[in-house]
Amino acid sequence: MPLRLDASAPGFEKEFSAFLGRNRDTDENVDRVVAGIVADVRARGDAAVVDYTAKFDWPGITAENMRLSDAERSAAAAKVPAAQREALAFAAKRIEAFHRALLPKDVDFTDSTGTRLGARYRPVDAAGVYVPGGTAAYPSSVLMNILPAKVAGVRRIVMVVPTPGGTLNPLVMLAAEIAGADEVWRIGGAQAVAALAYGTQSIRPVDKITGPGNAYVAAAKRRVFGQVGIDLIAGPSEILVVADRHNDPQWIAADLLSQAEHDPSSQSVLIADDAAFADAVVRAVEVELETLDRAEIAGASWRDNGAVILVRDLADAPPIVDAIAAEHVELAMEMAEAEALSQKIRHAGAIFLGRHTPEAIGDYVAGTNHVLPTSRAARFSGGLGVADFLKRTSLVACTPQSLAALGPSALALAEAEGLGAHGRSVSLRLGR
Ligand SMILES: NC(=O)c1ccc[n+]([C@@H]2O[C@H](COP(=O)([O-])OP(=O)(O)OC[C@H]3O[C@@H](n4cnc5c(N)ncnc54)[C@H](O)[C@@H]3O)[C@@H](O)[C@H]2O)c1
Ligand SMILES: N[C@H](CO)Cc1c[nH]c[nH+]1
Ligand SMILES: [Zn+2]
Protein backbone atom coordinates (compact mmCIF):
# COMPACT_ATOMS: atom_id res chain seq x y z
CA MET A 1 0.00 0.00 0.00
CA PRO A 2 1.24 3.50 -0.67
CA LEU A 3 1.93 5.87 2.20
CA ARG A 4 -1.21 7.55 3.56
CA LEU A 5 -1.02 10.96 5.21
CA ASP A 6 -3.65 13.22 6.67
CA ALA A 7 -2.69 16.87 6.39
CA SER A 8 -4.91 17.84 9.31
CA ALA A 9 -3.68 15.10 11.67
CA PRO A 10 -1.05 15.77 14.37
CA GLY A 11 2.41 14.72 13.23
CA PHE A 12 1.70 15.41 9.54
CA GLU A 13 4.60 17.88 9.18
CA LYS A 14 7.12 15.30 10.40
CA GLU A 15 5.79 12.45 8.25
CA PHE A 16 5.52 14.71 5.21
CA SER A 17 9.07 15.97 5.54
CA ALA A 18 10.31 12.36 5.87
CA PHE A 19 8.39 11.62 2.65
CA LEU A 20 10.03 14.60 0.89
CA GLY A 21 13.46 13.54 2.09
CA ARG A 22 13.26 10.01 0.69
CA ASN A 23 16.12 9.24 -1.64
CA ARG A 24 14.95 7.54 -4.82
CA ASP A 25 18.42 7.53 -6.39
CA THR A 26 19.90 4.12 -6.84
CA ASP A 27 23.49 4.68 -7.96
CA GLU A 28 26.51 3.75 -5.82
CA ASN A 29 29.91 3.39 -7.45
CA VAL A 30 28.71 4.79 -10.72
CA ASP A 31 30.66 8.02 -10.51
CA ARG A 32 33.98 6.25 -10.03
CA VAL A 33 33.36 4.00 -13.06
CA VAL A 34 32.28 6.97 -15.16
CA ALA A 35 35.38 9.00 -14.24
CA GLY A 36 37.52 6.16 -15.63
CA ILE A 37 35.53 5.90 -18.85
CA VAL A 38 35.58 9.65 -19.50
CA ALA A 39 39.35 9.83 -18.92
CA ASP A 40 39.91 6.86 -21.21
CA VAL A 41 37.83 8.36 -24.02
CA ARG A 42 39.75 11.64 -23.69
CA ALA A 43 43.04 9.73 -23.91
CA ARG A 44 42.27 7.14 -26.60
CA GLY A 45 39.28 8.57 -28.48
CA ASP A 46 37.59 6.20 -30.94
CA ALA A 47 39.44 3.14 -29.67
CA ALA A 48 38.05 3.61 -26.16
CA VAL A 49 34.53 4.31 -27.45
CA VAL A 50 34.68 1.13 -29.52
CA ASP A 51 35.99 -0.95 -26.60
CA TYR A 52 33.26 0.16 -24.17
CA THR A 53 30.53 -0.14 -26.78
CA ALA A 54 31.70 -3.66 -27.62
CA LYS A 55 31.65 -4.53 -23.92
CA PHE A 56 28.26 -3.05 -22.99
CA ASP A 57 26.18 -3.01 -26.15
CA TRP A 58 27.36 -4.76 -29.29
CA PRO A 59 30.57 -6.68 -30.10
CA GLY A 60 30.17 -5.85 -33.81
CA ILE A 61 31.03 -2.16 -33.34
CA THR A 62 34.06 -0.68 -35.17
CA ALA A 63 35.32 2.86 -35.65
CA GLU A 64 34.06 2.57 -39.22
CA ASN A 65 30.47 1.51 -38.50
CA MET A 66 29.89 3.74 -35.43
CA ARG A 67 28.19 6.39 -37.49
CA LEU A 68 24.99 5.28 -39.18
CA SER A 69 24.83 5.99 -42.89
CA ASP A 70 21.81 7.77 -44.36
CA ALA A 71 20.86 4.48 -46.03
CA GLU A 72 20.94 2.56 -42.74
CA ARG A 73 18.90 5.23 -41.02
CA SER A 74 16.20 5.41 -43.66
CA ALA A 75 16.02 1.62 -44.11
CA ALA A 76 15.29 1.28 -40.39
CA ALA A 77 12.82 4.20 -40.37
CA ALA A 78 10.96 2.72 -43.35
CA LYS A 79 9.90 -0.25 -41.21
CA VAL A 80 7.57 1.89 -39.09
CA PRO A 81 3.87 1.22 -39.82
CA ALA A 82 1.81 4.09 -41.23
CA ALA A 83 -0.28 4.75 -38.11
CA GLN A 84 2.78 5.25 -35.92
CA ARG A 85 4.46 7.32 -38.65
CA GLU A 86 1.45 9.62 -38.77
CA ALA A 87 1.29 9.87 -34.97
CA LEU A 88 4.96 10.86 -34.77
CA ALA A 89 4.56 13.44 -37.53
CA PHE A 90 1.46 14.85 -35.79
CA ALA A 91 3.34 15.10 -32.48
CA ALA A 92 6.37 16.69 -34.17
CA LYS A 93 4.26 19.38 -35.79
CA ARG A 94 2.68 20.35 -32.48
CA ILE A 95 5.97 20.26 -30.54
CA GLU A 96 7.66 22.42 -33.16
CA ALA A 97 4.82 24.96 -33.16
CA PHE A 98 4.81 25.32 -29.37
CA HIS A 99 8.59 25.67 -29.23
CA ARG A 100 8.48 28.37 -31.93
CA ALA A 101 6.23 30.30 -29.57
CA LEU A 102 8.90 29.92 -26.88
CA LEU A 103 11.59 31.68 -28.94
CA PRO A 104 12.74 34.72 -26.95
CA LYS A 105 12.87 38.11 -28.62
CA ASP A 106 16.08 40.11 -28.85
CA VAL A 107 16.18 43.25 -26.70
CA ASP A 108 17.49 46.59 -28.02
CA PHE A 109 16.77 50.03 -26.57
CA THR A 110 18.44 53.33 -25.75
CA ASP A 111 18.06 54.52 -22.18
CA SER A 112 17.70 58.05 -20.82
CA THR A 113 21.50 58.58 -20.75
CA GLY A 114 21.74 57.80 -24.47
CA THR A 115 23.37 54.40 -23.83
CA ARG A 116 22.18 51.63 -26.11
CA LEU A 117 21.53 48.35 -24.31
CA GLY A 118 20.53 45.05 -25.78
CA ALA A 119 20.57 41.29 -25.71
CA ARG A 120 20.86 38.94 -28.66
CA TYR A 121 19.96 35.26 -28.55
CA ARG A 122 22.07 33.00 -30.71
CA PRO A 123 22.11 29.21 -30.91
CA VAL A 124 24.97 26.98 -29.88
CA ASP A 125 26.85 25.67 -32.91
CA ALA A 126 26.38 21.99 -32.17
CA ALA A 127 24.13 20.00 -29.85
CA GLY A 128 24.42 16.37 -28.84
CA VAL A 129 21.24 14.50 -27.98
CA TYR A 130 21.46 11.33 -25.93
CA VAL A 131 18.76 8.75 -26.65
CA PRO A 132 18.66 5.80 -24.26
CA GLY A 133 18.98 2.38 -25.79
CA GLY A 134 17.01 -0.80 -25.27
CA THR A 135 13.42 -0.84 -24.13
CA ALA A 136 13.69 2.63 -22.54
CA ALA A 137 14.16 4.28 -25.94
CA TYR A 138 11.23 6.61 -26.38
CA PRO A 139 10.78 8.06 -29.88
CA SER A 140 8.75 10.85 -28.29
CA SER A 141 11.88 11.86 -26.31
CA VAL A 142 13.83 12.10 -29.59
CA LEU A 143 11.33 14.70 -30.78
CA MET A 144 11.33 16.51 -27.41
CA ASN A 145 15.13 16.91 -27.49
CA ILE A 146 15.86 17.55 -31.15
CA LEU A 147 12.97 19.84 -32.12
CA PRO A 148 13.77 22.61 -29.59
CA ALA A 149 17.37 22.59 -30.87
CA LYS A 150 16.12 22.79 -34.45
CA VAL A 151 13.76 25.67 -33.62
CA ALA A 152 16.60 27.47 -31.81
CA GLY A 153 18.59 27.28 -35.06
CA VAL A 154 21.33 24.84 -34.02
CA ARG A 155 23.27 23.99 -37.18
CA ARG A 156 24.61 20.57 -36.21
CA ILE A 157 22.52 18.14 -34.18
CA VAL A 158 24.25 14.90 -33.28
CA MET A 159 22.25 12.01 -31.88
CA VAL A 160 23.84 9.13 -29.99
CA VAL A 161 21.93 5.95 -29.25
CA PRO A 162 23.27 2.61 -28.09
CA THR A 163 22.10 -0.31 -30.24
CA PRO A 164 22.15 -3.37 -27.98
CA GLY A 165 22.92 -6.43 -30.10
CA GLY A 166 23.41 -4.17 -33.12
CA THR A 167 19.65 -3.72 -33.57
CA LEU A 168 18.33 -0.33 -34.65
CA ASN A 169 15.01 0.86 -33.22
CA PRO A 170 12.90 1.85 -36.29
CA LEU A 171 10.74 4.34 -34.36
CA VAL A 172 13.80 6.09 -32.94
CA MET A 173 15.31 6.28 -36.43
CA LEU A 174 12.08 7.70 -37.82
CA ALA A 175 11.82 10.26 -35.01
CA ALA A 176 15.43 11.31 -35.76
CA GLU A 177 14.52 11.70 -39.41
CA ILE A 178 11.36 13.71 -38.74
CA ALA A 179 13.07 15.95 -36.17
CA GLY A 180 16.17 16.43 -38.34
CA ALA A 181 19.20 14.83 -36.65
CA ASP A 182 22.26 15.61 -38.78
CA GLU A 183 24.36 12.70 -37.51
CA VAL A 184 23.42 9.49 -35.70
CA TRP A 185 26.05 7.43 -33.86
CA ARG A 186 25.29 3.98 -32.49
CA ILE A 187 27.03 4.51 -29.16
CA GLY A 188 25.80 5.12 -25.62
CA GLY A 189 26.62 5.38 -21.95
CA ALA A 190 29.42 7.49 -20.46
CA GLN A 191 31.63 6.82 -23.50
CA ALA A 192 29.13 8.50 -25.83
CA VAL A 193 28.77 11.51 -23.53
CA ALA A 194 32.57 11.84 -23.27
CA ALA A 195 32.95 11.54 -27.05
CA LEU A 196 30.38 14.28 -27.59
CA ALA A 197 32.02 16.56 -25.03
CA TYR A 198 35.68 16.12 -25.95
CA GLY A 199 35.51 14.74 -29.48
CA THR A 200 37.42 11.78 -30.87
CA GLN A 201 39.28 11.13 -34.12
CA SER A 202 35.94 10.72 -35.90
CA ILE A 203 33.37 12.52 -33.73
CA ARG A 204 33.53 16.31 -33.66
CA PRO A 205 32.73 17.74 -30.22
CA VAL A 206 29.46 19.53 -29.48
CA ASP A 207 28.68 22.50 -27.24
CA LYS A 208 25.61 21.26 -25.39
CA ILE A 209 24.45 17.77 -24.43
CA THR A 210 20.82 16.97 -23.61
CA GLY A 211 18.70 13.89 -23.14
CA PRO A 212 17.82 11.30 -20.52
CA GLY A 213 19.70 8.14 -19.72
CA ASN A 214 20.60 5.76 -16.94
CA ALA A 215 22.81 6.54 -13.94
CA TYR A 216 26.02 6.21 -16.02
CA VAL A 217 24.75 8.72 -18.55
CA ALA A 218 23.61 11.16 -15.82
CA ALA A 219 26.96 10.89 -14.01
CA ALA A 220 28.86 11.46 -17.26
CA LYS A 221 26.78 14.54 -18.06
CA ARG A 222 27.54 15.98 -14.61
CA ARG A 223 31.24 15.23 -15.15
CA VAL A 224 31.56 16.92 -18.57
CA PHE A 225 29.59 20.00 -17.50
CA GLY A 226 31.82 23.01 -17.99
CA GLN A 227 33.49 21.51 -21.05
CA VAL A 228 29.99 21.59 -22.55
CA GLY A 229 26.60 22.80 -21.34
CA ILE A 230 24.07 20.20 -20.21
CA ASP A 231 20.33 20.25 -19.68
CA LEU A 232 18.68 19.38 -16.40
CA ILE A 233 19.29 15.84 -15.19
CA ALA A 234 15.84 14.27 -15.47
CA GLY A 235 15.42 11.46 -12.96
CA PRO A 236 12.59 8.96 -12.44
CA SER A 237 9.19 10.33 -13.52
CA GLU A 238 6.69 11.81 -11.06
CA ILE A 239 3.02 12.64 -11.04
CA LEU A 240 0.95 14.46 -8.44
CA VAL A 241 -2.81 14.45 -8.94
CA VAL A 242 -5.04 16.84 -7.02
CA ALA A 243 -8.55 15.45 -7.43
CA ASP A 244 -12.00 16.21 -6.08
CA ARG A 245 -14.56 13.50 -5.34
CA HIS A 246 -16.45 14.07 -8.59
CA ASN A 247 -13.76 12.31 -10.62
CA ASP A 248 -14.01 8.76 -11.89
CA PRO A 249 -11.59 6.86 -9.59
CA GLN A 250 -10.52 4.68 -12.51
CA TRP A 251 -9.37 7.70 -14.54
CA ILE A 252 -7.30 8.96 -11.63
CA ALA A 253 -5.87 5.49 -10.96
CA ALA A 254 -4.75 5.27 -14.60
CA ASP A 255 -3.13 8.72 -14.34
CA LEU A 256 -1.20 7.72 -11.22
CA LEU A 257 0.04 4.56 -12.93
CA SER A 258 0.96 6.39 -16.13
CA GLN A 259 4.13 7.66 -14.51
CA ALA A 260 4.56 4.74 -12.09
CA GLU A 261 5.01 2.43 -15.08
CA HIS A 262 8.16 4.28 -16.19
CA ASP A 263 10.40 3.10 -13.38
CA PRO A 264 10.17 1.38 -9.99
CA SER A 265 11.68 4.60 -8.59
CA SER A 266 8.93 6.79 -10.09
CA GLN A 267 6.63 8.63 -7.72
CA SER A 268 2.82 8.99 -7.86
CA VAL A 269 0.93 11.09 -5.32
CA LEU A 270 -2.79 11.70 -4.91
CA ILE A 271 -4.08 14.70 -2.97
CA ALA A 272 -7.81 14.42 -2.26
CA ASP A 273 -10.34 16.07 0.03
CA ASP A 274 -12.56 13.02 0.40
CA ALA A 275 -11.39 9.83 2.16
CA ALA A 276 -13.97 7.59 0.49
CA PHE A 277 -12.91 8.84 -2.94
CA ALA A 278 -9.22 8.32 -2.09
CA ASP A 279 -10.01 4.73 -1.02
CA ALA A 280 -11.85 4.17 -4.29
CA VAL A 281 -8.80 5.37 -6.24
CA VAL A 282 -6.51 3.04 -4.27
CA ARG A 283 -8.85 0.12 -5.08
CA ALA A 284 -9.00 1.17 -8.73
CA VAL A 285 -5.19 1.18 -8.91
CA GLU A 286 -5.19 -2.49 -7.87
CA VAL A 287 -7.75 -3.30 -10.56
CA GLU A 288 -5.79 -1.42 -13.24
CA LEU A 289 -2.60 -3.21 -12.22
CA GLU A 290 -4.22 -6.54 -13.04
CA THR A 291 -4.21 -5.80 -16.76
CA LEU A 292 -1.20 -3.53 -17.19
CA ASP A 293 1.77 -4.82 -19.24
CA ARG A 294 4.24 -3.10 -16.97
CA ALA A 295 2.34 -3.98 -13.79
CA GLU A 296 5.46 -5.19 -12.02
CA ILE A 297 7.25 -1.85 -12.43
CA ALA A 298 4.14 0.26 -11.85
CA GLY A 299 3.05 -1.77 -8.82
CA ALA A 300 6.48 -1.54 -7.19
CA SER A 301 6.62 2.19 -7.79
CA TRP A 302 3.10 2.75 -6.38
CA ARG A 303 3.69 0.59 -3.30
CA ASP A 304 7.20 1.87 -2.51
CA ASN A 305 7.02 5.53 -3.55
CA GLY A 306 3.31 6.31 -3.89
CA ALA A 307 1.37 8.43 -1.43
CA VAL A 308 -2.19 9.50 -0.73
CA ILE A 309 -2.53 12.80 1.12
CA LEU A 310 -5.88 13.82 2.55
CA VAL A 311 -6.65 17.50 2.95
CA ARG A 312 -9.77 19.11 4.49
CA ASP A 313 -10.22 21.33 1.46
CA LEU A 314 -8.47 21.35 -1.92
CA ALA A 315 -7.70 25.01 -1.23
CA ASP A 316 -5.16 23.64 1.29
CA ALA A 317 -3.31 21.76 -1.46
CA PRO A 318 -0.97 24.46 -2.94
CA PRO A 319 1.64 24.54 -0.13
CA ILE A 320 1.81 20.73 -0.23
CA VAL A 321 2.06 20.75 -4.03
CA ASP A 322 4.83 23.36 -3.85
CA ALA A 323 6.77 21.39 -1.27
CA ILE A 324 6.67 18.27 -3.46
CA ALA A 325 7.56 20.38 -6.53
CA ALA A 326 6.60 17.49 -8.78
CA GLU A 327 7.52 16.99 -12.41
CA HIS A 328 3.82 16.75 -13.37
CA VAL A 329 0.80 18.11 -11.51
CA GLU A 330 -2.74 17.27 -12.60
CA LEU A 331 -5.62 19.36 -11.27
CA ALA A 332 -8.61 17.07 -11.82
CA MET A 333 -11.60 19.29 -11.15
CA GLU A 334 -13.83 21.72 -13.02
CA MET A 335 -11.75 23.92 -15.33
CA ALA A 336 -12.48 27.18 -13.51
CA GLU A 337 -11.43 25.64 -10.19
CA ALA A 338 -8.33 24.12 -11.77
CA GLU A 339 -7.38 27.48 -13.23
CA ALA A 340 -7.85 29.21 -9.85
CA LEU A 341 -5.84 26.54 -8.01
CA SER A 342 -3.07 26.59 -10.63
CA GLN A 343 -2.55 30.29 -9.96
CA LYS A 344 -1.57 29.40 -6.40
CA ILE A 345 1.00 26.76 -7.41
CA ARG A 346 4.55 28.03 -7.75
CA HIS A 347 6.65 24.89 -8.11
CA ALA A 348 5.78 22.31 -10.77
CA GLY A 349 7.42 21.11 -13.99
CA ALA A 350 4.10 21.10 -15.83
CA ILE A 351 0.48 21.59 -14.78
CA PHE A 352 -2.42 19.79 -16.47
CA LEU A 353 -5.76 21.46 -15.92
CA GLY A 354 -9.23 19.96 -15.72
CA ARG A 355 -10.70 16.48 -15.85
CA HIS A 356 -9.92 15.91 -19.52
CA THR A 357 -6.19 16.65 -19.52
CA PRO A 358 -4.31 13.48 -18.60
CA GLU A 359 -0.58 13.97 -18.19
CA ALA A 360 0.08 11.44 -20.97
CA ILE A 361 -1.14 14.01 -23.51
CA GLY A 362 1.82 16.16 -22.46
CA ASP A 363 4.18 13.20 -22.86
CA TYR A 364 3.27 12.87 -26.52
CA VAL A 365 1.21 15.38 -28.40
CA ALA A 366 0.25 18.51 -26.47
CA GLY A 367 3.35 20.24 -27.85
CA THR A 368 4.93 21.21 -24.54
CA ASN A 369 8.18 19.47 -23.64
CA HIS A 370 8.13 16.26 -21.62
CA VAL A 371 11.72 16.63 -20.43
CA LEU A 372 10.92 18.19 -17.06
CA PRO A 373 12.55 18.71 -13.67
CA THR A 374 12.25 15.82 -11.22
CA SER A 375 13.31 15.23 -7.60
CA ARG A 376 12.03 18.68 -6.53
CA ALA A 377 14.17 20.49 -9.11
CA ALA A 378 11.01 22.37 -10.18
CA ARG A 379 11.85 24.68 -7.25
CA PHE A 380 14.66 26.13 -9.39
CA SER A 381 14.22 24.89 -12.94
CA GLY A 382 11.74 24.50 -15.76
CA GLY A 383 11.65 21.87 -18.48
CA LEU A 384 13.73 21.61 -21.63
CA GLY A 385 12.98 24.31 -24.21
CA VAL A 386 14.48 26.42 -26.97
CA ALA A 387 16.30 28.58 -24.40
CA ASP A 388 18.48 25.57 -23.54
CA PHE A 389 20.02 25.77 -27.00
CA LEU A 390 20.43 29.56 -27.05
CA LYS A 391 23.00 31.83 -25.45
CA ARG A 392 22.33 35.44 -24.62
CA THR A 393 24.92 37.99 -25.66
CA SER A 394 24.45 41.43 -24.21
CA LEU A 395 25.20 44.61 -26.16
CA VAL A 396 26.32 48.03 -24.87
CA ALA A 397 26.97 51.12 -26.98
CA CYS A 398 27.97 54.46 -25.39
CA THR A 399 28.17 57.80 -27.07
CA PRO A 400 30.63 60.44 -25.79
CA GLN A 401 27.68 61.99 -23.95
CA SER A 402 26.40 58.77 -22.39
CA LEU A 403 29.95 57.78 -21.39
CA ALA A 404 30.16 61.10 -19.60
CA ALA A 405 26.97 60.22 -17.74
CA LEU A 406 28.02 56.68 -16.75
CA GLY A 407 31.78 57.14 -16.44
CA PRO A 408 32.13 58.86 -13.03
CA SER A 409 30.29 56.06 -11.21
CA ALA A 410 32.38 53.45 -13.03
CA LEU A 411 35.51 55.35 -11.98
CA ALA A 412 34.40 55.41 -8.36
CA LEU A 413 33.73 51.67 -8.35
CA ALA A 414 37.03 50.88 -10.13
CA GLU A 415 38.85 52.88 -7.51
CA ALA A 416 36.98 51.12 -4.71
CA GLU A 417 37.99 47.76 -6.17
CA GLY A 418 41.60 48.89 -6.61
CA LEU A 419 41.52 48.22 -10.36
CA GLY A 420 43.50 51.05 -11.90
CA ALA A 421 43.44 49.94 -15.54
CA HIS A 422 39.67 49.71 -15.40
CA GLY A 423 39.56 53.31 -14.21
CA ARG A 424 42.09 54.49 -16.82
CA SER A 425 40.12 52.97 -19.70
CA VAL A 426 37.22 55.17 -18.67
CA SER A 427 39.03 58.33 -17.52
CA LEU A 428 41.21 58.56 -20.65
CA ARG A 429 38.05 58.66 -22.77
CA LEU A 430 36.60 61.32 -20.50
CA GLY A 431 39.74 63.36 -21.05
CA ARG A 432 40.70 63.21 -17.34
N1 LIG B 1 13.13 11.05 -17.85
C1 LIG B 1 12.92 10.71 -19.11
O1 LIG B 1 12.34 11.46 -19.88
C2 LIG B 1 13.43 9.40 -19.59
C3 LIG B 1 13.10 8.97 -20.87
C4 LIG B 1 13.62 7.77 -21.31
C5 LIG B 1 14.47 7.04 -20.50
N2 LIG B 1 14.77 7.47 -19.27
C6 LIG B 1 15.70 6.74 -18.42
O2 LIG B 1 16.77 6.32 -19.21
C7 LIG B 1 17.32 5.15 -18.68
C8 LIG B 1 17.57 4.14 -19.78
O3 LIG B 1 18.48 3.22 -19.33
P1 LIG B 1 19.16 2.11 -20.24
O4 LIG B 1 20.20 1.48 -19.38
O5 LIG B 1 18.11 1.24 -20.86
O6 LIG B 1 19.81 2.87 -21.46
P2 LIG B 1 20.96 3.97 -21.50
O7 LIG B 1 21.16 4.25 -22.95
O8 LIG B 1 20.69 5.09 -20.61
O9 LIG B 1 22.27 3.24 -20.96
C9 LIG B 1 22.91 2.20 -21.65
C10 LIG B 1 24.40 2.36 -21.47
O10 LIG B 1 24.72 2.29 -20.10
C11 LIG B 1 26.08 1.91 -20.00
N3 LIG B 1 26.24 0.93 -18.94
C12 LIG B 1 25.42 -0.09 -18.61
N4 LIG B 1 25.95 -0.81 -17.61
C13 LIG B 1 27.17 -0.27 -17.33
C14 LIG B 1 28.21 -0.56 -16.39
N5 LIG B 1 28.12 -1.59 -15.54
N6 LIG B 1 29.32 0.21 -16.38
C15 LIG B 1 29.41 1.27 -17.22
N7 LIG B 1 28.46 1.58 -18.13
C16 LIG B 1 27.35 0.83 -18.17
C17 LIG B 1 26.48 1.33 -21.31
O11 LIG B 1 27.41 2.16 -21.91
C18 LIG B 1 25.21 1.33 -22.15
O12 LIG B 1 25.48 1.72 -23.46
C19 LIG B 1 16.38 4.67 -17.59
O13 LIG B 1 16.96 4.98 -16.35
C20 LIG B 1 15.12 5.50 -17.84
O14 LIG B 1 14.39 5.75 -16.65
C21 LIG B 1 14.28 8.65 -18.80
N1 LIG C 1 6.80 10.92 -18.78
C1 LIG C 1 8.18 10.85 -19.24
C2 LIG C 1 8.96 11.96 -18.56
O1 LIG C 1 8.76 11.95 -17.20
C3 LIG C 1 8.35 11.00 -20.72
C4 LIG C 1 7.71 9.96 -21.56
C5 LIG C 1 8.16 9.43 -22.70
N2 LIG C 1 7.26 8.56 -23.15
C6 LIG C 1 6.26 8.54 -22.31
N3 LIG C 1 6.54 9.37 -21.32
ZN1 LIG D 1 5.53 9.30 -19.45
Task: Explain how this protein is built.
The protein has 432 residues and is of the alpha/beta class. The protein folds into three domains: 30-230, Rossmann fold, CATH 3.40.50; 235-379, Nitrogenase molybdenum iron protein domain (Rossmann fold, 3-Layer(aba) Sandwich); 398-427, no CATH class. The chain is built from 17 helices and 14 strands. It has helices spanning 12-20, 30-44, 46-56, 70-77, 82-101, 139-152, 170-179, 189-198, 215-224, 249-260, 275-289, 295-305, 317-324, 335-342, 359-364, 400-416, 420-427; strands at 3-6, 107-110, 116-123, 126-130, 156-160, 183-185, 208-210, 229-230, 238-243, 267-272, 307-310, 328-332, 350-353, 390-397. The strands form three sheets. The chain has a six-stranded parallel beta sheet, sandwiched between helices. Helix 4 (70-77) crosses helix 7 (170-179) and helix 5 packs parallel to helix 7. The longest helix has 20 residues, at 82-101. It is globular. 43% of the residues are buried. The mean pLDDT is 96. Catalyzes the sequential NAD-dependent oxidations of L-histidinol to L-histidinaldehyde and then to L-histidine. Its EC number is 1.1.1.23. The active site is at residues 327-328. Pfam families: Histidinol_dh.
Features:
432 residues, alpha/beta, Rossmann fold, 3 domains, six-stranded parallel β-sheet, binds nicotinamide-adenine-dinucleotide, binds L-histidinol, binds zinc ion, EC 1.1.1.23, amino-acid biosynthesis, oxidoreductase
CA-to-CA gap between the ends?
77 Å
CATH-derived architecture of the largest domain = 3-Layer(aba) Sandwich
> How helix-rich are the residues, as a percent range?
40-55%
Instruction: Spell out the CATH superfamily of the largest domain.
Output: Nitrogenase molybdenum iron protein domain
Largest sheet, spatial ordering of strands: 1-11-10-9-12-13
Largest sheet: 6 strands, parallel
Radius of gyration over C-alpha positions, nearest whole angstrom? 25 Å
Class by helix and strand content? alpha/beta
CATH topology of the largest domain: Rossmann fold
- Number of DSSP helical runs: 17
Runs with pLDDT <50, length 5+?
A: none
Number of domains: 3
Bound molecules: nicotinamide-adenine-dinucleotide, L-histidinol, zinc ion
Number of strands: 14
Query: For the record, what CATH class of the largest domain applies?
Result: Alpha Beta
Average pLDDT over all residues: 96
Globular, elongated, flat, extended or rod-shaped: what is the shape?
globular
| Percentage beta strand | 15-25%
